[in-house]
């Protein structure tokens, strides 16, 4: 078995080309955020900008341009939409808060208004709706908890009830679903484990059982899938790996093979990362590929926080100002 340092020589991250790919996506229409569908621009902006920051190139974009667009997406309710003129949703609200955190511009927010919008989406049973239409999903529990934690407003919700609801979505295999009784899925597991990590509630997780389920997601190619019998996908390099790190079981997978799988998904000529080797690249998989390499401590990629999905230096700047140290 080769050491992890020599394994990095199998392929190479073409970081400069990925930076150019992200920046070129900005040029295709009027704004940087046009890399994905119109109503999802806020997410696209978060993926692209975080990728740039992890590669130490956030200075390549105009802060003022991004932020002036971002603030046009805020609704009078305090929540943010995926693009100007669309309806607010907790998903886009978190992306907006994360982008402002990247740029160290959280102070331009009316924190009371944003946090009240998010807190107002908590239901009587502790769960969260995504918006006023009422869809409930453990994704929204994570998003609300993550967002309020960054804004230092977790006291605006009933954290105990929120945790109880998440725990009610735990399955016999150790994993978590989107609602009680729903099947375990790596994306939902990240959301539930991340929310439990942020609230200091990881004791509710059966770490060995869940760790085993997550490790079983690694297939022969080295890539990870989201559920049994599915194809591997670069994005699970984030969902599975971050969960394993939070429960301290990441040493149970073959990191070198996963690094190789991610590097094999790069477009070596034009930049960008795809879901699987030889597929078309997109901004979503580019972000999750780079974020996965960050979790794998790949040289030249900044460290990312597994619970907050933001660079560690950004989270330290926000959270350590109030003397809170995250402990996983």
UniProtKB/TrEMBL annotation:
Keywords: Metal-binding, Prenyltransferase, Repeat, Transferase, Zinc. PANTHER family: GERANYLGERANYL TRANSFERASE TYPE BETA SUBUNIT, GERANYLGERANYL TRANSFERASE TYPE-2 SUBUNIT BETA 1-RELATED. It comes from the Eukaryota. This is Geranylgeranyl transferase type-2 subunit beta. Belongs to the protein prenyltransferase subunit beta family. Heterotrimer composed of the alpha subunit RGTA, the beta subunit RGTB and REP; within this trimer, RGTA and RGTB form the catalytic component, while REP mediates peptide substrate binding. It comes from Brassica carinata (Ethiopian mustard). One of its GO terms (molecular function) is metal ion binding. Its cofactor is Zn(2+). Residues 14-309 form the Prenyltransferase alpha-alpha toroid domain. Required for male fertility and root tip growth. One of its GO terms (cellular component) is Rab-protein geranylgeranyltransferase complex. Gene3D superfamilies: 1.50.10.20. It catalyses: geranylgeranyl diphosphate + L-cysteinyl-[protein] = S-geranylgeranyl-L-cysteinyl-[protein] + diphosphate. Its EC number is 2.5.1.60. GO terms for biological process: gametophyte development; root development. Binds 1 zinc ion per subunit. Pfam families: Prenyltrans. The keyword Nucleotide-binding does not apply.
């Amino acid at each position: 078995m080769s050491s992890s340092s020599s394994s990095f020589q199998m392929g190479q991250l073409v970081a400069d080309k990925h930076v150019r790919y992200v920046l070129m996506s900005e040029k295709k229409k009027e704004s940087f955020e046009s890399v994905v569908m119109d109503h999802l621009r806020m997410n696209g902006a978060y993926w692209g900008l975080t990728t740039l920051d992890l590669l130490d190139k956030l200075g390549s974009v105009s802060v003022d341009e991004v932020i002036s667009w971002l603030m046009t997406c805020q609704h009078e309710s305090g929540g943010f939409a995926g693009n100007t003129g669309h309806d607010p949703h907790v998903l886009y609200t978190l992306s907006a808060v994360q982008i402002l955190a990247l740029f160290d511009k959280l102070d331009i927010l009316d924190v009371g208004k944003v946090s009240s919008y998010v807190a107002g989406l908590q239901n009587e049973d502790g769960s969260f709706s995504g918006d006023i239409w009422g869809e409930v999903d453990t994704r929204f529990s994570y998003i609300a908890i993550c967002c309020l934690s960054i804004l230092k407003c977790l006291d605006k919700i009933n954290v105990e009830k929120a945790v109880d609801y998440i725990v009610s979505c735990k399955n016999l295999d150790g994993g978590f679903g989107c609602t009680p009784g729903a099947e375990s899925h790596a994306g939902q597991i990240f959301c539930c484990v991340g929310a439990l990590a942020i609230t200091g509630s990881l004791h509710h997780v059966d770490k060995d059982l869940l760790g085993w389920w997550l490790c079983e997601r690694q297939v022969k190619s080295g890539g990870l899938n989201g559920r049994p019998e599915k194809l591997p996908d670069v994005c699970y390099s984030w969902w599975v790996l971050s969960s394993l790190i939070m429960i301290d079981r990441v040493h149970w997978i073959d990191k070198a093979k996963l690094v190789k799988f991610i590097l094999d998904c790069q477009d070596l000529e034009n930049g960008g990362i795809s879901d699987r080797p030889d597929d078309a690249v997109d901004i979503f998989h580019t972000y999750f590929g780079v974020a996965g390499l960050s979790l794998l401590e790949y040289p030249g990629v900044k460290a990312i926080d597994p619970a907050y999905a933001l660079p560690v230096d950004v989270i330290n700047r926000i959270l350590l100002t109030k003397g809170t140290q995250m402990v996983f």
